[in-house]
Fold this protein.
Amino acid sequence: MALTELTHLFLPGMLERNSGRILNVASTAAFQPGPMMAVYFASKAFVLSFSEALAEELATTNVTVTALCPGATKTNFGTVASVEKTKMFSQAMPAAQVAQEAIDGLLQGKRVIITGSKNKAGALAAKLLPRSTVAKAVKSITQS
């Protein structure tokens, strides 16, 4: 809700100035169903869809909307979500690398930024494979 409310609050000023950049943090989780973390994955799908739709609505303005879609990142999230010992977090990216890719993509006006080559490959695979297959694969890496 906060992401939507903040956009509603700040977008009018950006449009009035005809300048601005919005960076929303989604996740590679946005591209697939997520057994064992269903609500998290679904919420990230919302962030991605919302961001892409808003980016298109604003295409004729100087306001850009970017969805950042990192995979597992070395932060406290893994511990808080009790997933730090799963396969999903075995090769988590350093937070500084994710942040740098986010800034670079935001400044380039990219609509979607998927950090890291493995995450890009995974997002592509999630689009090409049957969703039932993807759900089974995700379940295997989100379980402890």
In short: The chain has one domain: 19-142. The helical segments are 2-17, 38-57, 77-80, 95-107, 117-128, 131-142.
